[in-house]
Amino acid sequence: MSTAIGFLTQTRSLRKLTFYFALLAVACLALADIDISTGSPGHELWLMGRGLLTPQVPDWQQWLDAVIYTLTFSLQGVVLAAAVGFLFAVYYHLTWVRVVAALLRSVHEVFWALIFIQIFGISTLAGVLAIVLPFSGTMAKVYGEQLEEIDSRPARAVHDRAESGLSHFFYTRLPLALHAMRNYTAYRMECAIRSSVVLGFIGLPTLGFHLETALRTGEYSAASALLFTLLALIYSLRYWFRARLLWVLVPLAFFVRPVSGDWHSANFAQFLRDCIPAPLREDWALEKSGRWLLWLGEQIGAGAWNTVLLAQIVLVLTGLFALLTSTMNSSHFVSGWRRRLGDGFLLVLRSLPEYLLNFIFLIVLGPSMLPAILAMTLHNGAIIGHLLGKHSDEVAPAVMESGPLSRFAYFYVPTLYQRFLAYCFYRWEIIIRETAMLGVLGIPTLGFYIDSAFEFLRFDVALILIAASAVLTLCADSIARRLRRQFLPAY
Amino acid sequence: MTILVELSQCRLTYPSDTMGEADWLALEVDHLTVRAGERIALLGKSGAGKSTLLRRLRRELAGQTSWCPQEPGLVPQLKVFHNIFSGALDRHSALVNLRNLLLPSRRHQTEIARLAEPLGIADLLWSKAGELSGGQQQRVALARALYQHKPLLLADEPVSALDRIQGEAILRQLLQRHTTSIIALHNAPLALNLCDRVIALRDRRVLFDLPTSEVHPDNIQRLYQ
Q1: Domain that holds residue B134
Q2: Which residues cross the membrane (chain A) (predicted)?
Q3: pTM of the full predicted structure?
């Protein structure tokens, strides 16, 4: 027994870290509300399967319009976010820039959209802004890190002082990071297409808008056509999201769907007034304010508790799923058409937004935490699994020959485990943010309370709850960073 | 002659790789002066502290030196022309620099072509630096140092990747174009031939510091034992 759990006494054991995370997830699982509440999930699944095989577009005009909106939202959003993120990245050594970037990305685009819809109505401006703000925060972080990781010898070779100007940046730093930054921008474009589809679910005129209607009314043939459209859009990115074409496509996007919103200064003033906490705005008596605070506190408490609970389960399951499925895209296990098939499977899974998966599982399994757990595990697990598998190609093949299972346990997992944990920690803040957001669909995480606050036009409450979800995200980010530094000094 | 820099009772350290650990001692200097017009060779086995001393001198003489580090430190993604031009970023306004990155001006093209000619890299100006051989990269780094147009040259093994004859010719040019030079070399005969003062480092100390005319072959032999 003492040898079996000897790792518990070590200070920097990755096994111990994993053990505690898994233990916590099991405890959370015991507390979570998991249930299949629909009468016949099999039947619904069968209907969906049939729809998947018989895709049908009922109205091509409508379809085309939705495709154009999806593409213009994401293209405009990514290009503007790349510009802002790049500016931030240049000054990423300044603390306030890091803080602003962290705040921008700590709020999910769905929450940003709910806010901007109040200000600008259901409009292109609201949609584009909802993508630009969180994306610029994320891109600032990644661009900033890419610029920090470059070889500093060229810069030092031509410059003998610590501070360096714009010219030095463009000559000795940017060219070294540009390739990585380009690749990352292309990946963000994929994310932006997903986001713009999700924004459709809350009312913007993208593919998601029609997808929601089709799914809710059980028209699975129409839904599957939209789903395949989404996959095709993401798959086609590699052919048209190129620097040369973007000089034409970006102006075209702004020309075809100009960014505009319904701006009424009176409405905006009213919105701002409504954002002031009710007790201050309406000058309530102490006792009434106290009750309001208690009521708000209950929402924050319950919402945050459920968010953390769910995210913890999802984090561990995501890791497990990623570790197992990464073998489908790894040269250590598969090659040829099997590898392409496995990679394709992960890419398709990755392309489906967690919001959409959750929505589908909700129809099949009924309301509980289960649909959210499955949706996020599949989506996030496929992202990490794909990356990890690709990374494993860089590792030299195992010296000792053995069967796939032993190879997995004795070679694959040990050599890749640090990298794997680094990916999981990176993903943690995203999982927390997504968990909070998925409350919009009915599980009692923070998003549930945020959504109902918007529904009752309690903007003060909504903003406070959004701030609470941002704090949770920032906490996860900071814990992950500390764990990374302690356990994975190389990453 | 004017004294450019004077070090006394100096302990030069080398930054440690692991965080939190103390830096280790690379060189201890009791007294060292550099005067304008001198051509100084730094000799010694690798690890004797030559690079550390050069880095320290660069810091002391900030803004006055052309710098040619041991590793070329080029930007592999940029053209040779732009790598050489980056030696002079401080001389021009940011606007000129950025314009030159996209549309190189005629004036700078001729300037740099003239500089590259004697180094034998004139026909490589529009290749990417990352595609060059080690010797070619070293010559680009030399051109970049020359284009800094500073009176003082600090160079760390600037011709190590070139053959003997080519190396000597290029070293001569370097010395001619700077009023004062301090060059770390591993080739002792070359140093004695071209420089007027030799500073020899061994076991993290200055073993001797003599005019070239007073250096005895025994001194050199002891240095590399």
Answers
A1: 74-149
A2: 66-90, 110-133, 223-241, 309-334, 355-388, 456-476
A3: 0.84
